[in-house]
Amino acid sequence: MDSPKIKAVIPAAGLGTRFLPATKATPKEMLPVVDKPAIQYVVEEAVAAGIRDVLMIIGRNKNALANHFDSVPELESNLERKGDQGRLERVKASSDLADIHFVRQGDPKGLGHAVLRAKAHVGDVPFAVLLGDDLIDERDELLSKMIDEQSKRGAQIVALMEVDPEHIHMYGCADVEATDTDGVVRVKGLVEKPAKEDAPSNLAIIGRYVLTPAIFDVLEHTEPGKGGEIQLTDALQEVAADEDGPGVYGVVFRGRRYDTGDRLDYIKAIVQLAADRPDLGPDLRPWFKEFATTL
């Protein structure tokens, strides 16, 4: 079912310095995960949740993103002449996914600033923010549930996931209380990348949000925080602290998530996804077991 009142915003202006030199001329979002760029998985997730209007916030030298989601008549004609229908369909799929728009972030002032750049496009409707470093397995429900919760509560919704307390310093962390809905919590407070001893829980914010346009008013006066950047977490903390407002709620995700923002986790994501594919898994899994015995 389509969600015509929901738009998607995908911040994609990062420099990808952890993957240099691979990202010197290639956007990190275009690095392949098996045989599709990471960014395509994210757009497909939005589309699967019923979203057709997608805005990407990009920086300089990100033209490859627009090119990927555009049609390529010469390539398509060549594949058609060869009768290679399978590859033709896969090539055309990316250009037919959704209505994709692009806006430049300008100065890279943080995630909060990137989201704020979407204000004119979003207008007065709720919108989902999907970070490209987090891939959610298509077999596990998350975004559609977040959209449902936002519609019911009129609140800002974040995705939360339990992580090892030793790693909580890598994430925004939520202080929460239970609600009458299983898997949904009310967020009392948020802390950006706390030390282990300062973390209020082991529930980390992962890269999915469903927000209302009210967040733009907060972001416009949010001062730079950790790292000298305008943090979306800081804006959400202000909303959570307002006892008279609709607040912030978290949907706790217990499914499969792949982190492509770290080199080691990126490799793990490729192996995990390839091993589960019917066209690659039957040959890959036995080889991997054999290879593992040689280590």
Automatic annotation (TrEMBL):
Q: Which GO terms describe its biological process?
A: UDP-alpha-D-glucose metabolic process
Q: Kindly state which keywords UniProt assigns to this record, in alphabetical order.
A: Nucleotidyltransferase, Transferase
Q: What is this protein called?
A: UTP--glucose-1-phosphate uridylyltransferase
SUPFAM superfamilies with a match to the protein in the record: Nucleotide-diphospho-sugar transferases
The record's section on Gene3D superfamilies has: Spore Coat Polysaccharide Biosynthesis Protein SpsA, Chain A
The top of its lineage is: Bacteria, Bacillati, Actinomycetota, Actinomycetes, Micrococcales
Record-annotated Nucleotidyl transferase domain positions:
7-273
Which family does the similarity line name? Belongs to the UDPGP type 2 family.
What gene name is listed for this protein? galU
Q: Which Pfam families match?
A: NTP_transferase (PF00483)
Return the CDD domains for the record: UGPase_prokaryotic (cd02541)
Q: What is its EC number?
A: 2.7.7.9
Give the GO molecular function terms: UTP:glucose-1-phosphate uridylyltransferase activity
Judging by the UniProt lineage, the source's domain of life is Bacteria
Reactions the enzyme catalyzes: alpha-D-glucose 1-phosphate + UTP + H(+) = UDP-alpha-D-glucose + diphosphate
